[in-house]
Design goal:
Helix content: 25-40%
EC number: 2.3.1.61
Protein name: Dihydrolipoyllysine-residue succinyltransferase component of 2-oxoglutarate dehydrogenase complex
Cofactor: (R)-lipoate
CATH topology of the largest domain: Chloramphenicol Acetyltransferase
Radius of gyration: 30 Å
CATH architecture of the largest domain: 2-Layer Sandwich
Region (Disordered): 79-113, 118-137, 144-187
Shape: elongated
Domain Peripheral subunit-binding (PSBD): 108-145
Strand content: 25-35%
């Protein structure tokens, strides 16, 4: 009995993807629930798991484009991978008469021999076996491949050279032999990110306004209650929950920022699902934290940590990325001092956070050193006027500099 491994449905808008990585090899024994492969689409990266125990036979290679519902492997249920032995693990698994019959060789080969055959194009049936009872081993296949390569290299110069296969990765080397350039195909997710960023700049009248915020109040609050917070919740209190709450407060005060343009209509949002940009190995993703107006600081911190982990572990879903009304991106964790974030369409604004640095500022006529952060609000000027954008950013600044405002809703 066998079980087919198919590409799962990931949503109506996704019809295909690239099989980015196999977590198992051809001929491996797999268990139900075991991660088998990593599928990368233009929106998310998703892992596929085994639905049965048995030996897996792979049907597609890494890097191949696959369709939703396509069979990419078959699991022979109840089977077990052959035990490996240094002298015979790569031999042909003959049946009946163990003699070196070529037909028997060609119909039953070990996974290792089959992989070499697929890679080199050499038929095991035409290879002289040196294993027990004349069975073909992996070493026999490699020797045959080496002999074939040697024969090719000794062809007369007049013979036409075979066409080189199209390489997935191209490398240009310097005179010292070191690689100067490496080319590889852009992944669907990276290509989609690039396309969306360019579209955002072309389709919106994007403008950025700046301000700076004194982080002393939030930092003092965190320091005072951090131990008690960790003891109660099991994780630390960060800065993102304060900024998320401050953004929700500012969206309520300046509702024009919490709207989008849809054709010739302005759609006003009355909910507060905030996107948080997360850097992953596959590219930037923006999972959404739902109902931030109803969550506590601990609830926001927990939700951000959860969706960020799923994004980095390639377990994020389309539902996690949809429906945000506003985005926060924090380049400060990488040391950025100042930037102009690009809109996350169709949203009308995005807040960029930056590094916290001690700087001299004037307070009550005195020069003091305070931990300061630059804030950047990029917005769609077609919908949001300059007065609204500046007011919004001031509201965020006030809430962060005096966190009590968040409790009193001032």
């Amino acid at each position: 009995m066998s079980s087919e491994v198919k590409i799962p449905s990931l949503g109506e808008s996704i019809s295909s993807g690239v099989l980015a990585k196999w977590h198992v090899a051809d001929g491996d024994t797999v268990k139900s629930g075991q991660a088998l492969f990593e599928l990368e689409t233009d929106k998310i990266t998703q892992e596929g798991v085994a639905e049965a125990d048995g030996v897996i036979s792979l049907k597609v290679a890494e890097g191949d484009e696959v369709k939703i519902g396509e069979v990419i492997a078959v699991i022979a249920e109840g089977a077990a991978a052959p035990a490996k032995d240094d002298s015979e693990d790569d031999a042909v698994a003959g049946s009946g008469d163990p003699g070196p019959d070529s037909a028997a060789k060609s119909t039953a080969v070990s996974p290792a021999v089959r992989r070499v055959a697929e890679e080199t194009g050499i038929d095991p049936a035409g290879v002289e076996g040196t294993g027990k009872d004349g069975r073909v081993t992996k070493g026999d296949m490699l020797s045959a491949a080496k002999a074939a390569e040697s024969a090719k290299s000794q062809k007369p110069a007049s013979a036409p050279a075979p066409a080189a296969p199209k390489a997935e990765v191209k490398t240009q080397k310097s005179s010292s032999g070191e690689a100067k350039q490496t080319r590889k195909k852009m992944t669907p997710l990276r290509a989609k990110i690039a396309d969306r960023l360019v579209q955002a700049q072309h389709q919106a009248a994007m403008l950025t306004t700046f301000n700076e915020v004194d982080m002393s109040g939030v930092m003092a609050l965190r320091k005072k209650y951090q131990d008690a917070f960790v003891k109660k919740n099991g994780f630390k209190l960060g800065f993102m929950s304060f900024f998320t709450k401050a953004v929700v407060h500012a969206l309520k005060e300046v509702p024009g920022v919490n709207a989008i343009i849809d054709g010739n209509e302005i759609v006003q949002n009355h909910y507060y699902d905030i996107g948080v940009a997360v850097s992953t190995d596959k590219g930037l993703m923006v999972p959404v934290v739902r109902d931030c107006d109803q969550l506590s600081l601990a609830g926001i911190e927990s939700s951000i940590a959860e969706v960020a982990k799923r994004a980095r572990d390639s377990k994020i879903t389309l539902a996690d990325l949809e429906g945000g009304v506003f985005t926060i991106t924090n380049g400060g964790i990488f040391g950025s001092m100042l930037s102009t974030p690009i809109l996350n369409a169709p949203q009308s604004a995005i807040l960029g956070l930056h590094a916290i640095n001690d700087r001299p500022i004037a307070v009550d006529g005195q020069v003091v050193i305070r931990p300061m952060m630059y804030l950047a609000l990029s917005y769609d000027h077609r919908l949001v006027d300059g007065k609204e954008a500046v007011t919004f950013l001031v509201k965020v600044k006030q809430a962060i500099e005096d966190p009590a405002r968040l409790l009193l809703d001032l």
